[in-house]
Amino acid sequence: MLPDLRLYQLCSPSLPIGAFTYSQGLEWAIERGWVNSADSLGDWLGSVLQHSLVTLELPLLSRLHGAFRQQEEARVEEYCQWLLCCRETRELRQEERQRGAALATLLPNLGIVIPPALDASVRSTQLAGFALAAARWDIAPRDALLGFSWSWLEAGVMAGVKLVPLGQTAGQQLLLRLCETLPAALDRALALDDEHIGSSTPALAIASSRHETQYTRLFRS
């Protein structure tokens, strides 16, 4: 039971790493009119889920979890660099590093010791800190991936609720619908081999790069 409770804390929106301040290009996509309803928001998030989370973040999170448990420092560094290389815009790379640094600052205060040799890697990406905490708190790999997916999905829906805007009920209905796709998404992510790890989200990359110079904005990415 305790690992479950630790997971709830790790993926809570109240975790002080600033997750609510990022939209990952969604803010520009809404301003442009690409996303303008609950249905189009669902299409946007569903596409990113299938073509980025399933094929990049979740497979690497699973590998990082195993690398931390086996104390394979070289593997941790490799997977962190792999993720950063797949971030296609300046904003997305900054977000990764900022959230990673925030989580690396928090974890020691929660009793998670960061190996000195891996401090730079853990600070470079949120994924590494999440995997380290999950490994130290005995959170099962699949549970860790499910919690991370839920946290990402909730943040995306809530950003859309604010920006489209949508009503809170419409947001919860969309979250309910998209969550139905998570079990199959996790199966795909866990079965992916190294050769196929990567992302293919050109619309997100365009939106993120255009968001860097968006005149008025609420979100940092």
TrEMBL record:
<dbReference type="InterPro" id="IPR038277">
    <property type="entry name" value="UreF_sf"/>
</dbReference>
<dbReference type="Pfam" id="PF01730">
    <property type="entry name" value="UreF"/>
</dbReference>
<protein>
    <recommendedName>
        <fullName>Urease accessory protein UreF</fullName>
    </recommendedName>
</protein>
<keyword id="KW-0996">Nickel insertion</keyword>
<comment type="subunit">
    <text>UreD, UreF and UreG form a complex that acts as a GTP-hydrolysis-dependent molecular chaperone, activating the urease apoprotein by helping to assemble the nickel containing metallocenter of UreC. The UreE protein probably delivers the nickel.</text>
</comment>
<keyword id="KW-0963">Cytoplasm</keyword>
<comment type="function">
    <text>Required for maturation of urease via the functional incorporation of the urease nickel metallocenter.</text>
</comment>
<keyword id="KW-0143">Chaperone</keyword>
<comment type="similarity">
    <text>Belongs to the UreF family.</text>
</comment>
<dbReference type="InterPro" id="IPR002639">
    <property type="entry name" value="UreF"/>
</dbReference>
